[in-house]
Amino acid sequence: MGGSSFEGVELAVKTIAETAVENETYFGELDAVVGDGDFGFSMARGFEIVISDWDGFDRADIGTFLKKIGVVITGRIGGTSGPIWGTAFLRAGTASAGKTELTSSEVVEMLRAAIEGIKTRGQSDLGDKTLLDALEPAVDALEQELTAGSSGRDALAAAASIAREKAEATKAMIAKKGRAAYTGERSIGTLDAGAVAVAVMFERLAEVWPEEGA
Amino acid sequence: MGGSSFEGVELAVKTIAETAVENETYFGELDAVVGDGDFGFSMARGFEIVISDWDGFDRADIGTFLKKIGVVITGRIGGTSGPIWGTAFLRAGTASAGKTELTSSEVVEMLRAAIEGIKTRGQSDLGDKTLLDALEPAVDALEQELTAGSSGRDALAAAASIAREKAEATKAMIAKKGRAAYTGERSIGTLDAGAVAVAVMFERLAEVWPEEGA
Amino acid sequence: MKKFVNDPKEFVPEMLQGIAAANPDTLKYVPEYNLIMRADAPSDDKVSIVQGSGSGHEPAHVMIVGRGMLDAACPGDVFAAPPMDYVLETTKLLNSAKGVLHLINNYSGDRMAFDMGREMAEAEGVTIGTILVDDDVAVKDSTYTVGRRGVAGNFFVIKSVGAASEQGADLDDLVKLGERVNSVTRTMGMALTSCTPPAKGSPLFELGDDEMEMGVGIHGEPGRRREKLASANEIVDELVEATASDLPFQKGDDVALMINGLGGTPISELYLLYGRAYDQLKGRGINVRKSYVGEYCTSLDMAGCSVTLVKLDDDLVSLLDAPAEVANRIF
Amino acid sequence: MKKFVNDPKEFVPEMLQGIAAANPDTLKYVPEYNLIMRADAPSDDKVSIVQGSGSGHEPAHVMIVGRGMLDAACPGDVFAAPPMDYVLETTKLLNSAKGVLHLINNYSGDRMAFDMGREMAEAEGVTIGTILVDDDVAVKDSTYTVGRRGVAGNFFVIKSVGAASEQGADLDDLVKLGERVNSVTRTMGMALTSCTPPAKGSPLFELGDDEMEMGVGIHGEPGRRREKLASANEIVDELVEATASDLPFQKGDDVALMINGLGGTPISELYLLYGRAYDQLKGRGINVRKSYVGEYCTSLDMAGCSVTLVKLDDDLVSLLDAPAEVANRIF
Ligand SMILES: Nc1ncnc2c1ncn2[C@@H]1O[C@H](COP(=O)(O)OP(=O)(O)O)[C@@H](O)[C@H]1O
Ligand SMILES: Nc1ncnc2c1ncn2[C@@H]1O[C@H](COP(=O)(O)OP(=O)(O)O)[C@@H](O)[C@H]1O
Ligand SMILES: [Mg+2]
Ligand SMILES: [Mg+2]
Ligand SMILES: [Mg+2]
Ligand SMILES: [Mg+2]
Q1: Which of A157, B160, B198, C120 could link B134 by a cystine bridge, Cβ 3.0 to 4.6 Å?
Q2: Cα dist from D198 to A16, D7, D202, whole Å
Q3: How far apart are CA D122 and CA D91, in angstroms?
Q4: Percent of chain A, pLDDT > 70?
Q5: Looking at this predicted complex, what is its ipTM?
Q6: pLDDT of residue D145
Q7: Using CA atoms, how far apart are residues D3 and D201, in angstroms rounded to an integer?
């Protein structure tokens, strides 16, 4: 079954953080094409704190833990990414308040809450050429797999390949949100940095997720 | 005999002016290596006026004519070249005051006066890596040839080859005057722009000077 | 990278330390929030005016904190709006009985950070007013829901509300004033070169020797379109046409004309551009009453410029003429 | 060439037209002599202060003409001292019963033009005083008979004699004052890039991506030596050491510290440099009493900086604090 223990949540967060830090330059280059190049730098500055302060976060329950992560992000990450990713973690924390482990449907609910948070904060939706265009389809895939009874690892693998596919698909889109939107038609032909970041993170998660679930 | 009629003086001035204008870029490049690159621009801006106002200059006598040229130069050419070349023409004008043609010895006296003017104005002398290092040897050669009875054309040819040789020799010198002096040892290995200009001018004069004298 | 940098991560803090060191009597630096604030702020007799924005636009905004201008600026990293916490903590630190005014250049990141910061500060009892600056005509408003960008024109909003706040104006009046000034301000910019963020170490985009980018913003993002490099006059004429025809500015209007340098263009060239812009406006019967030539809102080391026009009335002129004192100074 | 230019021959005149257009009430432009002068000059109650120099150093000197600074500036073409006639005619136009003060940066061309101009103006009955500025420590005085160059430090000479002349000081006193200020002023500059004169259209010298030029002047001429590109701190430390050890400046001295940009370096980087220079001086027990950060004397679009130190006393501080009004302004 594809639920998640507290360790599983920690593994997910740590993996996201490490991916952000290790890909600072790559994510920055992606944002530079039609954006302003700060995406990688912003994410790395915030998530490197998540890693350095790792042991100190209050782990009373999953919700508290995720909110603490959200606070670090809104405390250090600027640009659009701070509010976007910060809100995502805060909403996920609210959705998982009081819990010390999550069923597979609770995992999905939590991710849906994060997505809703991003949409409200960003006044954005599918089709705007943002990370949402990779994140939401990936979560849809995750849900399908989990309800079909796949293991967490298999579900993540499926989500990852969808995320990658959709991230690639942002190439054909015209940006309607974010810095890239200013270039209008000229944004066509370039990948959305946030969407690619989401894909890379899901791929890393699928790799590190233990066979026997976490 | 290698004296000079008024026409000869006019030919000489016109040739100098045309050379300055036609070599604006080249002279500028030479000055750019260890200087500030304005030599060509400065000379061209002044001598193009000499050409455009050509017919209007007072030709009461050679001295008056040369002083008028000097006034145009000090009126428009800046940098070091304005005072240097302006003084040269003014002193040459004083030396030829009242004359309507010049004997070969008067030609040499006039040129010596110009050289003295440059040295006083520039507080400079042979060996400072300036136009003097080409000009004075060239005038020495001119004098020798003329006293030996050579034609003006032959004398100019001799002066031109010496000027060229000495201009090339400035490469080995260290600049003690002018902008180039600030680079000290680093000025070694580069031609002095003013010296090269003098060489080019003598070469042009030797070409245009009529066989039968002018 | 031909820049003066140590560790790129320290670029912004080291710059802020320099500003503080150069203005010990008038400014205070709070490292935790990239915060440069007036040493004498907040005062309960005066609305506190706060600006965020990313770094890389200097002198905007950290070098225009001072009497008659901003009370505080809490920039984010280079080209990144400040984290929400910076906005929240700055707002709380600057809290005044007359309230706090948030000046926001219209970008998603800035708006989100200030929205979140405002919500939380208000929850803690701070009264907050907000002005959005969006003077950039290069962005076709209709097409993109993010709306127009706030660029060099923000100077005029800051200067006017800064002066009015010194005269004791209330928060609501300042918001109205700022919105009014923003509504009569138009800017269009262009780039001769890209710019190099310290952390990236290479230009954000490539521009050929014979190319220029028209309609750029102030974050090194590409502009409206790329064109063949043109003469100074051709460039000015296009920028003046774009700004003047947008409001539109009309025959007989009094205006402020700003030629803003984007960071790498020397002031000699900016004055050359000013001369042409002035003639063009004169030709249209538009009367330049106040002039601003120099760097006001830059994009790091980008060579380029922007033209800003502001429709003036006597009230606005007196606010622009009012005394002000900032780190960005000659003497 | 990534510059705003029309016909390169018109670069200087078009810039001067822009300055005049932006300051119609305070400045007058006389095209024949590239002359920018105070609209209210000359006055028989005040010594007229005149500066020449080449163009390409803006805001020096055409943009610092005004009350409390220069009465007139008659620059030559880019990097070329003015023709003698400009000096002569400007001096005659500015003639005052109290005399005319010539401020000359120490270069052969400038000295010759002013020598000739002075001779002829004096012959026409003008009383003239002369101050030579030579603050550049990069030039080893002994080795080269041309002596040290006048660079960014000239700002302090201009500001102090400008203020004193407004207070009615006589020509002789101004000459003494200017010489005194020059004698306690030291500058050293360096370049990260070359610069491009409009008429040349390409850089004056080539500098590799990993190279820098230490000890440059302000005319794009190469400097003392070429080095591997270093960190901002290493660069500042060398410039501070070179200037501080030259006078020398000692523990307990009060100084003015100027970080001058050479044209292509954004002010964000200049403040970063300031912070380091301030710390270095503090470490030496030298007390920075006044700060100047920005572009004061540039070399076209060169990326680079210079550090200037001035030993202060109370008299000098009050002259530096005195009001002044020039085209180079923020508001
Ligand atoms: N309004 C929005 N809603 C959701 N995601 C957004 C929005 N705007 C931008 N993004 C995402 O953020 C990424 C850029 O982040 P960042 O570089 O921090 O923003 P910026 O520099 O434009 O402020 C984009 O690639 C996109 O995926
Ligand atoms: N003191 C001097 N006396 C004579 N000639 C000089 C002197 N200084 C420079 N020159 C000549 O002038 C040339 C440079 O002229 P120019 O570029 O106008 O001077 P700058 O730009 O240094 O003011 C040099 O190549 C040299 O031949
Ligand atoms: Mg970005
Ligand atoms: Mg030269
Ligand atoms: Mg950004
Ligand atoms: Mg010169």
Answers
A1: B198
A2: 52, 9, 8
A3: 10
A4: 100
A5: 0.95
A6: 66
A7: 9
Counting CB pairs under 8 A, whether chains D and C reach 3 or more, is yes
Nearest Cα neighbor of A111 from A135, A128, A127 is: A135
Q: Distance of CA A76 to CAs A29, A47, A101, B202, Å?
A: 21, 9, 28, 72
Instruction: Kindly report the average pLDDT of chain A as a whole number.
Output: 96
Q: Residue written as tokens 């000495």? A: B166
Cα–Cα distances in angstroms (integers) from residue B86 to residues B133, D9, D85, D89, in the given order: 18, 21, 11, 17
CA distance A42 to A22: 13
- Do C305 and C50 contact (CB within 8 A), yes or no? no
Query: How far is C47 from D5, CA to CA, in rounded Å?
Result: 44
What average pLDDT does this structure show over B185-204? 96
- Compute the distance between CA of residue C285 and CA of residue C290 in angstroms, rounded to an integer: 15
Question: pLDDT tens for residues D117-137?
Answer: 999 999 999 999 999 999 999
Calpha distance D144→D142 (Å, rounded): 6
Please say whether the beta carbons of A121 and C112 come within 8 A.
yes
pLDDT at D141 over 90: no
Q: What are phi and psi of A108, to 5 degrees?
A: -65, -45
Amino acid found at C253:
D
CB contacts, 8 Å: C269 with chain D: 3-5, 15
Q: Name which of D216, D179, D198, D243 is nearest D303 in CA terms.
A: D216
What's the start-to-end Cα distance of chain B, in Å? 10
Q: Phi, psi (5° rounding) for residue C8?
A: -50, -30
Lowest-confidence region among C93-97, C275-279, D143-147: D143-147
- Cβ atoms within 10 A of the Cβ of B71, count? 17
Compute the CA torsion angle C10, C12, C15, C17 (nearest 10 deg): -70
Residue B137: the pLDDT is 98
D72-73: strand order across its sheet? D27-30, D35-38, D72-73, D48-51, D100-105, D128-133
- Closest among C143, C136, C147 to A123, alpha carbons compared: C147
Asked if residues C82 and C74 have their Cβ atoms less than 8 Å apart, the reply is: yes
The interface residues of chain C toward chain D in range 206-235, judged by CB-CB distance below 8 A, are 209, 229, 231-233, 235
Amino acid at C51: Q
Q: What is the pLDDT of residue D250?
A: 97
Residue A184 has pLDDT above 90, yes or no: no
Contact call for residues A50 and A17 (beta carbons, < 8 A): yes
Distance between CA D229 and CA D216 in Å, rounded? 15
- Quick check: B97 and B3 in contact, CB under 8 A? no
pLDDT value at A3 more than 90: no
Helix or strand (DSSP H, E) at A36 = none
Does the Cβ of C56 fall within 6 Å of ligand 1? no
Judge contact between C219 and C271, C-beta under 8 A: no
Q: Between residues 271 and 310 of chain C, which touch chain D (CB distance below 8 Å)?
A: 271-276, 278-279, 288, 291, 293-295, 298, 300-301, 303, 305
A57 Cα: distance to centroid of ligand 3 (angstroms): 28
